Amino acid sequence: MGNIRPTMIKRFAMKLLNEYRDRFTQDFEHNKKVLRKICKEKGYLISAKVRNQVAGYITRILDREE
């Protein structure tokens, strides 16, 4: 059984990937740091749990593309 992510996580991740694809990599820790910087620039307030879920989903998408 796999993880079922809320639609909010998927939409936010896809929005960020469309805008900042060149900043993200297949490394989860790197994506967390990049996501923190982007959210700080844009003024988004997200919890650590949501940040980790979005970073993990982005990592998974980039892994699947290769």
At a glance:
With 66 residues, the protein is mainly alpha-helical. It is built from three helices and no strands.
Radius of gyration: 11 Å
Unreliable runs: none
> How many beta strands in the DSSP annotation?
0
The helix-and-strand class reads mainly alpha
The percent range for helix content is over 70%
N to C succession of SSEs: HHH
The main β sheet shows up as:
none
- Molecular shape: globular
Assembly form of the protein: single chain
The overall pLDDT average reads 93
How far is it from the N-terminal to the C-terminal residue, by CA? 23 Å
The amount of beta strand, in percent, is under 5%
Specify the number of helices: 3
What does this structure look like?
It is a single chain. Helix content is 71%, strand content 0%. It has helices at 7-20, 28-42, 48-65. It has a domain at 27-66. The protein is built from three helices and no strands. The chain is mainly α and 66 residues long.
